[in-house]
Amino acid sequence: MKRRTPVVSGISIVLLLLTTVTFAQLPYRVHLPLVMRIGQNPLMSGEATFYLEADGSGACLFDPIPGDRMVAAISYLNYGNADYCGAYVEVFGPQGSVVVRIVDECPDNPGCGLNHLDLSPEAFERIAPRAWGRVPITWRVISPPLTDPVQFHLKDGSNPWWLAFQVRRHRNPIATLEYRTPQGQWVQLNRTPYNYFIRECQCTGGEGGPFILRVTDIYGNTLTETVQFTTLSSGGLSPGELVSGSGQFPYGP
């Protein structure tokens, strides 16, 4: 996916001299998995920029939500295997704070170091003037006050033998997604860097649902949902469909 360069300004150089944050030189694609324990919610130190194309889409393959521009891309050094996709983080900057949802990956280019967040322009303006371009920040993962249940998206190209599930609108970041086979066995699905969980079935006739899915968040909370996507007249599934579950994760620490 083609990505943009974070917007910066000359004033950024002065601000960088004021921050005490330092970063180790890490190799490309270091996987720093998002794992937390109950009662822990660490505060991360980094920098923020903004990018004009921020609309809610990006490497996490979410659809833009009309009216929701409080989004951000996270550094490729943190992104891991889509670990932060859909996470809500509270960002503290020089002149305020803002809550954003992680929807994209900030690539390996000048300025996207460890713990870097590339915000939408609207979100950046909550913590500093746009003219500053780049500012020191701290941030932490939070559990937002969502009232709707989690959602499940079936990726385009899915069929009874190759299923790609995505979890959306989750209060806490997702750790694992498990699939209950027709034989009653729980199988942990492989997560992709594009934020879908894959189920491949080497079986006669394939699998058409309803699908029993068990979602676990980073704090160990689980949701078990029975999800039914539309079955087409051809016997296949309706790829691209979005279905609501019945529950939502509790608040984290």
Write up what this structure looks like.
With 253 residues, the chain is mainly β. It has two domains: 11-142, RlpA-like domain (Barwin-like endoglucanases); 151-244, Expansin, cellulose-binding-like domain (Immunoglobulin-like), CATH 2.60.40. 6% of the residues lie in helices and 33% in strands. It has helices at residues 11-18, 76-79, 121-124; strands at 44-50, 71-75, 88-93, 96-106, 117-119, 135-142, 151-154, 162-168, 174-180, 186-188, 190-191, 197-200, 211-217, 222-227, 242-244. The strands form three sheets. The protein has a six-stranded mixed β-barrel with strand order 1-5-2-4-3-6. A five-stranded antiparallel β-sheet has the order 11-12-8-7-15, with no helix packed on it. A four-stranded antiparallel β-sheet has the order 10-9-13-14, with no helix packed on it. Strand 11 and strand 12 form a beta hairpin. The model is unreliable at 10-33 and 35-39 (pLDDT under 50).
